[in-house]
Design goal:
The protein is an alpha/beta fold and 298 residues long. It folds into 2 domains: 160 residues, NAD(P)-binding Rossmann-like Domain (Rossmann fold), CATH 3.40.50.720; 119 residues, N-(1-d-carboxylethyl)-l-norvaline Dehydrogenase, domain 2 (Orthogonal Bundle), CATH 1.10.1040.10. Helix content is 52%, strand content 12%. Strands 1, 2, 3, 4, 5, 6, 7 and 8 form an 8-stranded mixed beta sheet that branches. Strand 3, helix 3 and strand 4 form a beta-alpha-beta unit. Helix 10 runs antiparallel to helix 11. The chain is globular, with a radius of gyration of 20 Å.
């Protein structure tokens, strides 16, 4: 198959999707974007992308980076969905965190319409996304991978391939999200416990980042608490969905995941307290409230 990619649509211009779009623009592609947040579409235009007159008949690839399965399904197969607009052999690359069974269902339905589907969840955060240094966990047909390769080359640092069985990439992402969510909650618990013992949060980060108790999430999220900056790089609202997917998979596999369940409850509590749109480091506010202590304030 010889498909030369020129035009790409990115659906979902949040921190991760916008970074992907930026990397593709830098690589010389014509990049179109869609997002419910019109400010993000305006930002895309300022970066050299487009948000109007999307040439669906001349799109070679659509990259979907939205919140959940419902949005993903609607984009592909809903009323006015892209599956009815794209030419055969166009690529649909789904970076949304979804359950493996959902990825299999979408792939099968896309295949019935002559479209290529790539299960392509991502990791790395907004900074690496903007730098074109994401990690991908991909599964799909050799044809889908062949078409996606130039996209992966300019948006990723590492590509982990999990073969032709769609859903394997999403299964690996679920494992990653299990750890990431637990690590954020553990960081929040540890830093607030430290405060109750008179340990300054800056000192906490200085020491723990050089000790065995550290993690990437701890080193990345603790500065948000220290700086009293909860502008969402990754929001609280992501975690009830992602950890919910993890626990659904675990339940279907008769696997007990008590640490994940405990972390999930903290994020649900944070969302229920009105913190859903804040950075996920804001889960520390739940611990602080329960302990009657104050977090750093600017």
């Amino acid at each position: 198959m010889d498909i030369k990619i020129k035009n790409i649509l990115v659906v979902g211009l949040g921190s991760m999707g916008f970074g992907i779009a930026q990397s593709l623009i830098r690589a010389g592609y014509s990049v179109y974007g869609q997002d419910k947040n019109l400010k993000q579409q305006k930002r895309l235009i300022e970066e050299g992308g487009y948000d109007k007159n999307i040439p669906f008949n001349d799109l070679q690839a659509v990259i979907i980076v939205v919140l959940n399965e419902k949005q993903t399904r609607e984009i592909i197969f809903g009323q006015n969905g892209i599956s009815e607009k794209l030419k055969k052999n166009s690529l649909i690359m789904v970076c949304t965190t979804v359950a493996p069974d959902f990825a299999k269902e979408m792939a099968s339905s896309c295949n019935d319409k002559g479209l290529l589907y790539l299960d392509a969840p991502i990791s790395g955060g907004s900074k690496k996304s903007a730098e074109g240094k994401l990690s991908y966990m991909i599964s799909g047909s050799p044809k889908a991978f062949e078409v996606a390769k130039p996209i992966l080359d300019c948006t990723s640092e590492t590509v982990f391939e999990f073969g032709e069985h769609v859903g394997s990439g999403s299964a690996m992402k679920a494992v990653n999200q299990m750890l990431a969510g637990v690590h954020i909650a553990a960081m929040a618990e540890a830093i607030t416990f430290g405060i109750t013992q008179g340990i300054d949060p800056k000192r906490f980060l200085e020491v723990i980042s050089k000790c065995a108790g550290t993690s990437w999430m701890l080193e990345n999220r603790t500065p948000h608490i220290i700086d009293d900056d909860y502008s969402p790089k990754s929001s609280i609202n992501i975690w009830p969905k992602d950890l919910g997917i993890v626990l659904d998979i675990a339940k279907n596999s008769n696997f007990s995941a008590p640490l994940t369940a405990a972390a999930l409850q903290q994020f649900i509590s944070a969302a229920g307290s009105g913190l859903g749109q804040e950075d996920d480091a804001a889960v520390a506010k739940i611990y602080a409230r329960n302990a009657g202590i104050k977090l750093p304030q600017n």
